[in-house]
Amino acid sequence: MPWIKDLIEVMKRQRKHASFFEWPEKEIKEIGIVKLLFESMQKKGICPYHNPVSFKNDPPDCIAQDINGNAVAIEVSELVDFETICDAEHNKAKPKYWKNNEVIEHIEQIIYKKEQKKFNGGPYKHYVLLIFTDEPFIETSDLLNTLIKYQFKKPRLFDEIYLLFSYDSWSKSYPYVNLNISDNISLVPT
User: Fold this and answer.
1) What distance in Å separates the CA atoms of residue 8 and residue 69, rounded to the nearest whole number?
2) Residue 64: left (phi > 0), alpha (psi -120 to 50), or beta?
3) 161 exposure class (CB count in 10 Å sphere: 0-12, 13-18, 19+)
4) Is residue 38 within 8 Å of 49, Cβ to Cβ?
5) Measured between alpha carbons, how far is 55 from 71 in angstroms, rounded to an integer?
């Protein structure tokens, strides 16, 4: 069974921290994450997008369609502590316990970085930023409660921003939140 050897090799190369979503091929990883978000949205009965495909001329990472068949650009990014990844590779990892304000700051940095990109293809009716995380020491339920109330400054480009968490066995789903974006910025949760 040669596929077992291939799987073992993939597992050997897998990083040691926050690796739930990891896969060697970037395009497969990104489209898989987009599909997980869509499946989670469908479970709640509110998925405005369908038919996601990888886009080779990145960015965007993926393209989908809205309910009217219009093209939707989807950019995918990870919320992760890179210092912990580096430490874990050298077997020196100490846990990073995230505070909600640190997560918010990190999300704002991701938004800023992704806003600097020039998107290829199009035209796109909507621009979506999908941030995913498998950070083990983010208190998901507490963070979700904070993010539901928090207002992020409206980005120049993105119409919607989602934060997707790794699988939660209790809810049997991938928790996510559609972040509140507005022209009125709030520095603290309201």
Assistant:
1) 41
2) beta
3) buried
4) yes
5) 12
Residues 74-123 pLDDT 10s: 999 998 775 655 555 656 667 778 899 999 999 999 999 999 999 999 89
Torsion of CA 164, 167, 171, 173, to 10 degrees: 60
Tell me which amino acid residue 156 is.
R
Non-local CB neighbours of 26 within 8 Å, separated by 6+ positions:
none
Does this model's pTM top 0.90?
A: no
Cβ pair 140, 85 in contact under 8 A: no
Using alpha carbons, select from 160, 74, 72, 159 the residue that is nearest to residue 124.
72
Strand ordering across the sheet containing 62-66: 49-54, 62-66, 71-78, 126-133, 160-165, 176-178
What is the rounded CA–CA span in Å between residue 165 and residue 140? 8
Position 188 pLDDT exceeds 60: no
* Beta pairing, strands 160-165 & 71-78: unpaired
